[in-house]
Amino acid sequence: MPRFEPHPERRPVLIAGASSGIGAATAEALAELGYPVALGARRVEQCEALAMKISTSGGEAFAHRLDVTDTESVDAFVAASEVALGPAEIVVSGAGDLAFSLVHEMDPDQFLHQINVHLVGVQRLVHRVIPGMIERQRGDFLMISSDTAHTPRPRMGAYPSAKAAVEAMARQMWMELEGTGVRASLVRPGPTMTGMGMDATAEIIGPVLEDWSTWGFARHPGMLKAHNLASAIVAVVSAPRGAHLQLTEMQPEAQVRTINSGSHS
């Protein structure tokens, strides 16, 4: 029978995109469970405020600026985090933004920037932390995907393409990392209420919602909350050795229908 060494009691977590939304909610959820958390994002002031909140509540947190489109920034974030908290046991790659556009109308440089954030940014983190995890024969690298990876929605610019590529990369990593003790995982959310893309004007979001309805993507108005995704991420990275939750998909639950209780003749 194969033997699986237990995870160490102390498992430092690096979170990319921790200034708000899913990343921030995940940081709070893991910190509450005793995980030391390193918070990285371009909006470092928000990460610092969250780190202070976590520390005040009895948790252990560290904040550092992180731009996943910049290899030197990724290197600096990981190095500083590991000095502050120890070698990374868990990485949650959730940095991202969203620019709505028809593919043929999107400026190629903007399209490339989205790919750089959502795909290459993930690979920068992979390149920086996975070799150390392989050396220690343990680690969890979790990538936030999207249901648009397999079911694209119109007017979402480069986002579906980038997320589809992330899922292909993850599947490749499952093969490449098999037997190393390192688990690469995907969490694939449906519509989620976060700050990403929510600054779009009515002139932009109106046609988006109209096209989504036309193509059957607006069955109900329910949306996931950041804390819903945080609960899924906690479950994935805290799975015991010997189990690998490769893909976790989550969709918003529709509001419970009102049952007509009138009498029948």
How would you describe this structure in keywords?
265 residues, alpha/beta, Rossmann fold, seven-stranded parallel sheet, two-stranded parallel sheet, 7 helices, 43% helix, globular
Task: Explain what this protein looks like in three dimensions.
With 265 residues, this protein is an alpha/beta fold. It is built from 7 helices and 9 strands, in the order βαβαβαβαβαββαβαβ. It has helices spanning 21-32, 44-56, 71-85, 108-136, 159-177, 202-214, 226-237, and strands spanning 13-16, 37-41, 61-65, 90-93, 139-144, 182-189, 192-193, 224-225, 247-250. Helix 1 (21-32) crosses helix 7 and helix 3 packs parallel to helix 4 (108-136). It is globular. The N and C termini lie far apart (65 Å). The mean pLDDT is 90.
**Radius of gyration, rounded?**
19 Å
Task: Give the proportion of residues in helices.
Answer: 40-55%
Number of strands: 9
SSE arrangement, N to C: EHEHEHEHEHEEHEHE
**From the 3D coordinates, which CATH architecture would you assign?**
3-Layer(aba) Sandwich
Count of helical segments? Answer: 7
Distance between the termini: 65 Å
Order of strands across the main sheet: 3-2-1-4-5-6-9
Output the CATH class name. Alpha Beta
Number of individual domains: 1
Low-confidence stretches: none
Mean of the pLDDT scores? 90
Strand coverage percent: 15-25%
